[in-house]
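Practice set, problem 2.
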Amino acid sequence: MRGAWDSVICPRLLPAPPRRTSEAPDRAAGYSVGPRRLAHVRGAAHDDPVDGEQGRTSGGLVRRGFLGAAAAAGAGAAGVAATGCDSAGRDVHRARPSRRADAARRAEEAERARPGSADWRIRSTGPPDAIEGYTDRVSVLPDEEVGLYVSTTAPAFRVSAYRIGWYGGAQARLVWRSGRVDGRKQGAPLFLDATRTVRADWDRSLRIRARNWPEGAYLLRLDASNGHQRYVPLIVRSRQARGRTLLMHAPATWQAYNTWGGYSLYQGRDGAYGSRSLAVSFDRPYAKSGAEKFLVYERALVVLAERLGLPLAYTTGMDVHLRPAVLKGASAALSLGHDEYWTPQQRRYVTRARDDGTNLAFLGANTCFRRIRLEPGPGGAPARTVVCYKTAYRDDPYLVNHRDLATTDFRQSPAPDPESSLTGVLYEGYPTDAPYVVLDSGHWLFAGTGVDDGDSFDHLVGVEYDRVTPGVPTPAPLRIIAHSPLVCRGRHSHSDTAYYTVASGAGVFASGTMRWVEALMAGTHENGRDHGMDARTRAFVTRTTENLLRAFAAGPAGRDKPRPADNVRAVYGTGARAGPGSGAGAAERAAR
């Protein structure tokens, strides 16, 4: 979210119109699919795996009755869908699986068939210092070690590792639990004046080895002996994603918004933008539950993708920066619900993957908006600090010798490169709350949802939004499939859902709203963040996302799905844009 101090105020538009392929703005050809149901610690700790089997169910509904029937179903009514599409075919993205891949696939299926652990949720966070912790790595490979740093007012604590997935509706499985660990209250954090950076710099409490932990997204739950709990998120990442859908989690964005110790990239201890951190450290806990951004903007998509039985791989945006080979041969790469902070390297590698045939999905808004730099932490540990000076980028000493690496918005000088050239949409503003309006109900992404042109879904657009913006670098042809009127800070605009393809055959989808992943939980009051969205909205977003994930898992979508017919001019007309200095807050931006 944004406050009045931030550098983006609705709306933000850019000059320099791109060349756009001239296409007839005809309605894209519809695509029909068959109906489906909405469907180790050294010393004091021990391993405690959970095994078992569970069956799967399937069913069907006619297209026109889908939304109504799904809305009437309870939050746990969705059945496990059929397993993912066969990847055999004619190119690198459809190569016949190797024996190793077959073995990995069997292990993946066995993991998903195990019973879940319904008690994974936190029952009481207690006071902020009751128990809290952080790891010395945002991700590990299976069998690697990670250090855990814990502070608690309780005399002892335990750690439970839960892998997030479907698991018959339990949505997590207990993979490992520690023994009793002595607890203590750790010292006050270190404050680095030059960048107003807070580091806990605590003593390590224990080491954990992810022995026999399947790849995936994990929550380490800290259970204090006084009854209070906190999460510490951890990704057990994949070495490679060939033939799989790659989920890119966003710890850089989690950390940017983290206010632990009183500072984030948005505010200082006094709540003011001017006293904000210029760099934030991973060597500190996350505030609140310890995993708020993951729970709200990412977890529901992990659960859905696992329920669909698709071949999945896991990584983080920071790991893409450090280890881009994970993208090679991936069927798809998914950016989740709030993925704002990217390094130029991450962006370059993801763009290259697209151009090599990897489908991309941007399931939030405000994606790839901030240009960041990753720096080492204590002892030279790589990528433990996120640097983003934003409007104060001229004060960054690094800029003296690296003029093209200013840590400000990607679209801003001295090296403007708007995110729209990759995502197809441009971030415009905050805050808004508006209905999502379908423009092209015949598009294959909406197959089986039962929607018609003009159908709307209350509150689905928000709290930040993107739109297709004529006059900025945008791929073509590009199809707008939802066009939602809204008001942001008194200014009328639109949010757009867009789809385009490139020569490699890769398809690229952008939802245009930050609530897309949240909507997968709509009507359930999960995390208390449903914004008034209902079960009907959940059914629509779930089915559309299922269509997207299944198609993208099958290989380059542009080879099997209709080529998008460009309708940008038909929707927006020619020259329909504000000048670069116009719009709400232009004077305030210029003053900075």
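Problem 2, part (b): a different protein.
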Amino acid sequence: MTAPAQSAPPTLALVNVSKSFGAVRALQDVTLELHAGEVHALAGENGAGKSTVVKTFAGVHRPDAGEVRVDGAATAFGGPADAQAAGVAVIYQEPTLFPDLSVAENIFMGRQPRTGRLFSGRGRIDRRAMHAETARLFERLGVPLDPRQAARGLSIADQQVVEIAKAISRDARVLIMDEPTAALTGQEVARLFAVTRTLREQGCAVLFISHRLEEIFELCRRVTTLRDGGFVGTDLVADLTPDDLVRRMVGRDLDALYPKQDVTPGEVALKVRRLTREGAFTDVSFDVRRGEIVALAGLVGAGRSEVARALFGVDRWDAGSVEVDGRALPPGSPTAAMAAGLALVPEDRRQQGLVMDMSIERNIGLTQLKTLRRETGRGGLISRRVERDRAADWGLRLQLKYSRLSDAVGVLSGGNQQKVVLAKWLATEPAVLIVDEPTRGIDVGTKAEVHRLLSGLAARDLAVLMISSDLPEVLGMADRVLVMHEGRLTAEIPRADATEETVMAAATGRPGSGKAA
């Protein structure tokens, strides 16, 4: 069903827009209308054309065909400055503020209010007026931030609020929010949604982009779906189910988003006893058996990623012990962890999991340099053919989508980058795979593929420790759920007993939330 037309002309619109980059058609005949007082979602898999839409609205790209319209009139943005002048502002997932300047200085950079004229012809910066106006902006948004506070040290959520305040100070009428919740906690998401609703009530047109379907259904009135650069349709969110939206995005039914296979756990592969790292976590003990997927759940800051880093030897633990297949690991030695059969897919794939300027094939081969040298047999040199053949094999196994294996890994979509990280570590044939936020920032179709891969690995006798802040993912994929709160394990919950209520109770430290860990 297509959403009914609205009587007033849209504040900002694309009408039958097409855009190509060389031989690649990024957008084809796309129409998208943003109306005042409405939150409108843009949905699609990675590579569907969402970023091109954002950059076209922002004046970065000009359409090859079709029109950009402002208040119903055709407009040609010559660049981002023209889009800003028309009232368009983009809030990105990771804001770019000047860290050593105050919040107020960031908001009014280049536009600071001035006192009377001096000999130079420019007045001094009127800091009192700047701070007062910043305070009014935050009051309008319902957020208690200090205008004098330095930007350095602000959370991502607070930085996004500063960017929104900056947009409002420029009289923005259209706010484009590109994956704004990807790095936020549940509480921070709730606050961002409250700010967005306030802007909607004040007459802003908001374009909201997210891979989290539940956010689209909670916040948005209409949703436009793209697939492979093409326009699928615009619908009222109330007329859709999540399954309907998934079908529009991927062009098919997903067999299951959480295709967990039933397995009988085998021998203990990972044994952790009383592991402690001062200031991070205390007295952590658990086992992971072959064939199991064990989830490590909890709120952001509970210590889950810190435990993973310590297990792999990135950080040294102060007390306790770790064994992989009965082999004791020394603290602070990734080399020993790898040799024992431990692999870690880190939370931040771009900063910690990949070398972004390096090729796909070289990234996959980084964990197997000794093996590649041995297979090459040229006195320590590595044959590019051997490296490429190995990478091509893993690309086929994981259904990696790429143009050439020699391309930089940075050109891949987020989901395909995650597959490269997985390939890199699966190539080491580990006994235990630790995956930290395995599906963060990837689209629903690729998310299902990653879940199917993890389930298949467990069925082939691998032990999987999965750290995730996505509660449906935890409940859908885990055989057991371990929950952390303030650096301690507070509960161990079997799959049959795991619900959102029991997991969240343990994550917030409430008693009676499951078997004590």
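Answer key, part (b): The domain at 253-341+430-516 is CATH 3.40.50.300 (Rossmann fold). DSSP finds 18 helices and 20 strands in the chain.
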